[in-house]
Amino acid sequence: MTSTAPAADEAAAPVARRRLAPEDREHQIVQNAIAFYASHGFEASTRDLAKELGITQPLLYRYFPTKEALVDRVYEEIFVRRWNPEWEEWLADRAVPLADRLKRYLRDYARFILRSEWVRIFMFAGLTRGGINQKYLSRLRERHFKVIAAEMRHSFDIPDPKTPQEEEDELELVWAMHSSVFYIGVRKWVYEQPIPKDLDRAIGFRVDAFLAGTPLVLKNARS
Q1: 167-190 burial by CB neighbour count: b if 16+ within 10 A, else e?
Q2: Exposed, middle or buried by CB within 10 Å (0-12, 13-18, 19+), for 207?
Q3: Dihedral over Cα of 190, 76, 36, 24: its sign
Q4: pTM above 0.85, yes or no
């Protein structure tokens, strides 16, 4: 009877590791770096990262010659490439009631940010890499907060701010509402606390509460 079992030397032969194309290797490094920094923070060394990736440190530096270059690439991947340019269009579309615009925007934005890697990297960056947060929050302020404030003034006939302080007052109120959505992710991924089961409903209540109170507060302050 002829045996179909593989020969001993064949069974013991190691499986050849597939050689990755440079662009695939770079993508692999970046994706694993995101997971690594989300778990360990930015204080972790590139030596530890290379070990986690199963590659040598010289190979890591072939793609990213410095840690700063890798961190910049992580920022680009997490905070820039996943940014939805339609958000600004939704917020500024006056053919749609402001409440509906804000709910659509925040529900979609929540799906963008309320992930473990996004929340944890943002928190770690705030502690050790403040430039990441500053760049992102400046972008958020200019492209979203100011648009929301302008659209709220238009929808509720609120007088325009006459001083820098009045502008800061309304932006601070926008920020408070907006950051309450981000805080849902902090509760889940940092504090390990339960969050609303129906996220869309929770965001809808936040928007309704914001529009029920903020316009009145601003009108009274500027009367």
Answers
A1: eebbbebbbebbeebbebbbebbe
A2: buried
A3: positive
A4: no
